[in-house]
Design brief:
By secondary structure, this protein is mostly helical. The chain has a single domain, classed as Serine Threonine Protein Phosphatase 5, Tetratricopeptide repeat. Helices cover 85% and strands 0% of the residues. It contains four helices and no strands. Helix 1 packs antiparallel against helix 2 and helix 2 packs antiparallel against helix 3.
Length: 84
């Protein structure tokens, strides 16, 4: 999905999160947060990766999106493992 270009993906994802929040598109926002967690992890920013995944997880639980809940758990686990 990110095509091995996390630096280029970061800004559009942050913009997508902002727009989704303004529009109330919570599932889109959760998905973008989960994707942003992958980006931050790829960039070595594990603190932000965990924070983004946690935000995606909380929102996903709130809206009941099982698919995004699973993605968030995988992403936060990966960020914690990679960050030591």
């Amino acid at each position: 999905m990110l095509n091995d270009r996390p630096r280029e993906a970061r800004e559009p994802l942050e913009e997508a999160i902002s727009i989704a929040e303004q529009l109330g598109a919570q599932e889109v926002r959760a998905s973008a947060l989960n994707s942003l967690a992958i980006v931050y992890g790829s960039l070595g920013d594990f603190e932000r990766a965990v924070a983004a995944a946690d935000g995606g997880l909380r929102l996903s639980e709130h809206i009941g999106s099982v698919e995004e809940i699973m993605r968030a758990y995988v992403n936060v686990s990966q960020a914690i493992q990679d960050g030591g």
